[in-house]
Amino acid sequence: MKIAVAGGTGLAGRLVVEALRARGHAPVVLSRGQGVDLLSGAGLDAALAGAEAVVDVSNVTTTRGSVSVDFFDRAGRHLVGAAARAGVRRLVTLSIVGVDRVRNPYYAGKLRQEEIVRSGAVPWTVLRATQFHEFAGQLLDGIPGPIAVVPAGRVQPVAVREVADALADIAPGPPRAMAPELAGPRVESLAGMARRLIAAGAAHRRPVLPLYVPGGMSSGGLLPTGTGSRGTQTFADWLGERTA
């Protein structure tokens, strides 16, 4: 099956492409390097010709709500419109567990993306997954200074490869609307994850100070609430592989 992958060069996208290929499908990467621009829609119609499914793992790195909403609104409208014109039979979109419970500028864009998918003409599946194991390191990278002030709170991190495998399994099948949430095997504290990264030499050495953040992140809003699938790789396993 020809399956297009929006964001196919990113952290999750590369693994989705690998997983689809391993299952005998023909993935097509939708990226600027392949002449496709989600924000303008350029190249989308040609790239989606003959595609039966689309997996959307496109992303933007920002902490500004206006940037996030603008990206996911424009990219989502162009992708859904082009998919409908091409006769794509299923659209699978990766989202985030807690996106509708945690007030966060970036999440505002992801919510807009979900709205566009649900209101579009292409049959759809949205898979909400918990934060990747890389999340604590990404937080540390964005925090300058001699002390790492990280949000207090708990997450249930999941391996990005396991998320990619789930998306590759969903894409060829029938649309499922809101799929059961996917999470990792164990609940962790963000501060604890940050400290373990630093202790392992995987991040700049400095004290970690947990800070309560209003809006749900520090009060369990990022944890799964349903009984969906659970991954097998723990944060400790992932960290061990990274620092071996």
| Biggest sheet: strand arrangement | 2-1-3-4-5-8
Beta-strand content bin: 15-25%
**Residue ranges: pLDDT <50 for 5 or more in a row?**
none
Largest sheet: 6 strands, parallel
Order of helices and strands: EHEHEHEHEHEEHEEHEH
Distance between the termini: 37 Å
**Total number of beta strands:** 10
Overall 3D geometry? Answer: globular
User: How many helices?
Assistant: 8
User: For the CA atoms, what is the radius of gyration?
Assistant: 18 Å
Could you say which structural class the secondary elements and strand pairing correspond to? alpha/beta
Helix content: 25-40%
Mean pLDDT: 96
In short:
This protein has helices spanning 11-22, 44-48, 65-86, 105-119, 135-141, 160-170, 190-199, 235-243, and strands spanning 2-6, 26-30, 53-56, 90-96, 124-129, 148-151, 154-155, 177-178, 188-189, 208-211.
